[in-house]
Each structure stands twice: as C-alpha cells, then as structure tokens.
C-alpha cells in the first residue's frame, strides 16, 4: 500500500543535541511538508518542498533544517537552537497539483530528556 | 491575516445524538477548505474538500457544508467509533499553504 512512513515513532533529545526525523513516501508525490502540532493548537508549517533540491521556510522554521535530495525523502533536523522542541511532528505530501488534499504520516513524538 | 477558528473545542455526545462542528475562517481568496479526522497518536486522515459556497459533501454519518465565512461538519446519529479530533484547514490562492484550526475533539459515549 502507498503511504508516508515516519520514524521513529518516539524520540528523545538531550540538551545541545541535534536529532533527525525521517519521512519517506511511496506515493510518487512531488510536494512534501513538515508540521508541528502542540496540544490545543492547530498544525503549524515548518518547511515545505515542491521539488527535489529545493525547499522553503514555513511559519516556524527557526531551529529546524531540512533537505530534499530524493523525491521520496524529506528528513527534518531539530537543532539545538530550537529551545522548545517537545511536540508531535507530522510529515505530509501532495501531488504537483497543490489543490489535492495532503496525505499525512503517523507522526513522531519528540520529547526532551 | 488568514485565520481559522473551530468550535467547540470539545464535544461530548451520546450515541445517536446528532450535532454539528463549526469552522469559521477568514482568507484572502479561498482555494479550498479541507476536513480531516485525527485519532490519538496518529496523523490526520482526509475526509472532504469543499471549494465554493453552497457545496456539500457526505460520507457515511458525516456531511460537510460551506458558506463564504464558515463550514459545518454535521454528524448524524454518531457512534462511539466516530470519537476523534476533527480538523479544519483552508488553503488560500495567494500562498497555497494550508492554515489549520485548533480542532474539535469529539467523544461519543455508548
């Protein structure tokens, strides 16, 4: 079955440590997105990419970095500069037609040790 | 500024008790309005897209409607398995990005 796979499901970060969240899709979608979800808040866009080797900042990009070396993969690095990283992180994708609904993975929950 | 507000934040229903969830929005040119269902610890699952005022879509016990300022998700005779958080998002023409509301958490008791 086609879909989006996020790993790991749970991740713990120590002070001063960078951590990388994986997102892989086999839907042949062109665009990929990273969102952050906090309790009682809507999903907020961190980064998005519409094509390989290109990506744009979303609304809350500070303290995060991404890469898009392959169409299928869009990893997110939470750097030590992100002072409040505890959240549920969601990856999504769409075909090149951005009016199509975004498909989501099942998320990674990141916590501070 | 583009904005989405969902109400109520939480809703408890008895099985079979119909109700509606509200999604109010302001956006500079609506490209589409999306409804998603999210179960605890899972990613959102797509339900509906609405593109223009007056449009309606149905799926099982759910019916989504759209006006120029808000959308409703009507739940008819809900069952316990309908318990979830329902998210609304709008997409603006000028940015193409999705702007999400904070969600309505629905609990249906048997």
What's the rounded overall pLDDT mean of chain B?
96
Q: How many strands in all of chain A?
A: 11
Dominant shape of chain B: globular
The rounded distance between the terminal residues' Cα atoms of chain A is 35 Å
Q: Quick one: biggest sheet of chain A?
A: 7 strands, mixed
Number of helices of chain A: 0
Beta strands of chain B, count: 11
Largest interface: A-B, 22 and 24 residues
Q: How is the quaternary structure best described?
A: heterodimer
Q: How would you describe the shape of chain A?
A: globular
Our Rg estimate of chain B from Cα atoms comes to: 13 Å
Give the topology string of chain B: H per helix, E per strand: EEEEEEEEEEE
Estimated radius of gyration of chain A: 13 Å
Number of helices of chain B: 0
**Helicity range of chain B:** under 10%
**Biggest sheet overview of chain B:** 6 strands, mixed
Short summary of the structure?
Chain A is mostly beta strands and 113 residues long. Chain A is 0% helix and 49% strand.
Keywords summarizing the entry:
heterodimer; A: 113 residues; mainly beta; 7-stranded mixed β-sheet; globular; B: 110 residues; 6-stranded mixed β-sheet; 5-stranded antiparallel β-sheet; 11 strands
């Amino acid at each position: 079955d086609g879909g989006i796979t996020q790993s790991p499901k749970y991740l713990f970060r120590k002070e001063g440590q960078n951590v990388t969240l994986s997102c892989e899709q086999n839907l042949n979608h062109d665009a990929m997105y990273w969102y952050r979800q906090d309790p009682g808040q809507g999903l907020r866009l961190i980064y998005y990419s519409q094509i390989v080797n290109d990506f744009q900042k979303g609304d809350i990009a500070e303290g995060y970095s991404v890469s898009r070396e392959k169409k299928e993969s869009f990893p997110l690095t939470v750097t030590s500069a992100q002072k409040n990283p505890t959240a549920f992180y969601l990856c999504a994708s769409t075909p090149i037609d951005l009016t199509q609904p975004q498909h989501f993975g099942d998320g990674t929950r990141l916590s501070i040790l | 500024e583009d904005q989405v507000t969902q109400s109520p934040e939480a809703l408890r229903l008895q099985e079979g008790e119909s109700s509606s969830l509200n999604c109010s929005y302001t956006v500079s040119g609506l490209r589409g309005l999306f409804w998603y269902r999210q179960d605890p610890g899972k990613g959102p699952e797509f339900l509906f897209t609405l593109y223009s005022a007056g449009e309606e879509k149905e799926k099982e016990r759910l019916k989504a409607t759209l006006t120029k300022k808000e959308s409703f998700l009507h739940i008819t005779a809900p069952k316990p398995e309908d318990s979830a958080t329902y998210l609304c998002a709008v997409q603006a023409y000028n940015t193409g990005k999705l702007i999400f509301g904070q969600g309505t958490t629905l609990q249906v008791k048997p």
